[in-house]
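Hey everyone, long-time lurker, first post.

I ran two proteins through the pipeline my lab uses and got sequence/structure pairs for each. Pasting them in order. The first:
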Amino acid sequence: MSPLLTRLCVFCLACAIHIGGWAADEQLTLLVYGDSLSASYGIEEQQGWVTLLQRRLDDEIPEVKVINGSVSGETTTGGLARLPAMLASYEPELMILELGGNDGLRGLPVELMRENLAQMIELAVAAGTEVILTGIQIPPNYGPRYTVPFFETYADLAKEKSLPLIPFLIDGIPQRPELMQNDGIHPRAEAQFMILDNVWPILKPVLENLKES
């Protein structure tokens, strides 16, 4: 067999392996892009739900590597400014977008948050990254005229952009004060497994679909 024909056969074999799906030794990068709820605020990093997620993935889908790009205090404006560099650096196949809580706590306009989230989604999709959107609720003392449209923004965006939605990242936790830190905003270490359990049913099918595609 000539050297040219040999190289052609090797190339075709490599293409066939790639087209065949997510190879066993191929790594998929998952970017968690959020704020203090995902940045282990007030607890040790190894206790946070993102670290717990990596451990579960190591057991169930070990090809997935988690990058935690979360920053405490981050707003959607700050997240939008940082995202292009994050996408370029890590080239994630999937991103969990968990931002907006600090916009709400600062009483920033809901429309600004929506526009920033939409732009981040568009940037990710343009880079070949699938997105899972995470909904956030803010304390009821902000009043229903603000809290209701704030919370509804996530479901509206998920529907508009055809995205999987985790309705409320810390669902079931704020109702139990013993699971919240003294600030009443951030879950304690004991509640991090509950956050993971809110994420996992939405995340797992997306990962399995990526693996088969």
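...and the second, right after it:
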Amino acid sequence: ESQPSLRWVVVALDPGHGGEDPGARGKSGLLEKDVTLRIASKLAALVDDTPGYKAVLTRKSDYFIPLRGRTAIARKAQADLFISIHANSLPTTRDVRGAAVYVVSERGATSEHAKLLANLENAADMIGGVDLHSQQDDVASVLLDISQTAVREASFDLGSRLLESLGSVNRLQKTDVQQAGFAVLKSPDMPSALVETAFLSHPEDERLLGQGEFQDALADSIFQGIKGYFGLYRPQQQLVYAEPAIARAGPMPVRLKRRR
């Protein structure tokens, strides 16, 4: 008789840019799209090597993916978390350096709310299996609002943990979680954060970003933040695997439950 097992924690990792979109370029020629893929790949290996965790990369090599396509990949994998990895740049000055973490702004979330309500077929099955097609507009609006509020709270918690762990590896450009309307952070059903690991426009940050050891340290620090987050938020329900083939089929949708 099969024993119940906790569902995998699925972490979606998004290496910024790719393909014809190189992102920022350092003075030495180091490209953001290459750095982010290396860090995300190292992080994915850490996630996959941890029992109960599963990583999903939005891209595994150098190719272009539209911003909406990135969150679509994460949602198809039924990810519990979405982290987009970037390397900052400020060409007007070489003095600014360090890491920063962003979550979606309330304005960005509000605009996304409106888009989802205007196009309900895109909002189906978004909130813990509730099909918004079957709901009246006002009910659907309330469901989305509840979902977004919980996700923003969880995203801020995640962002704070990421900042704390990143601060042990690199100095922080911003010591508080920042808010912005990044398209990849607007999912109403998936806690999300964007990590700016360092500045390619700063000579020392660029030198560090090109080093495998520093990339390893960044990946590990981000993973420490992820594990800290799941110490508070965890998948709520259990799975009972009837046979190994079902286990291989992948995770099933769950809701996040906050530990008290």
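Reply from user beta_strand_b:
Welcome! Quick read of the second one: The chain has eight helices and ten strands. Residues 137-166 form the longest helix (30 residues).
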